[in-house]
Design goal:
Layout (H helix, E strand, L loop, with lengths): L1 H23 L4 H28 L5 H26 L2
Helix pairs in contact: 1-2, 1-3, 2-3
């Protein structure tokens, strides 16, 4: 359940980035692509923090947390990559 909630948080963060890109940019498709591009490293850091909490606080090993980290990072990042690809042309 925690994994789904964290991935949901990633999608919420992606929407926040896209809205910020639309409102603070010129409203063009390129502004959305740029927002999606900036989301990916920000989400990598967020997913990494989630992994660190799992290792430090919950007591999981890095080997146990790494596949969950990859899943949590990859799903929203792939969607952001698709937005970047679609609107970055």
């Amino acid at each position: 359940m925690h994994t789904i909630l964290v991935m949901g948080g990633g999608f919420v963060l992606l929407v926040v980035f896209l809205l910020a890109g639309r409102l603070m940019g010129d409203g063009s498709a390129l502004a959305l692509a740029t927002a999606a591009k900036w989301f990916i490293p920000a989400w990598f850091i967020g997913a990494g923090i989630n992994m660190a909490v799992g290792v430090i606080k919950a007591g999981y090993s890095v080997a146990e947390e790494l596949p969950i980290f990859l899943l949590i990072f990859a799903v929203p990042a792939v969607v952001a990559g698709l937005v970047w690809w679609k609107f970055g042309r």
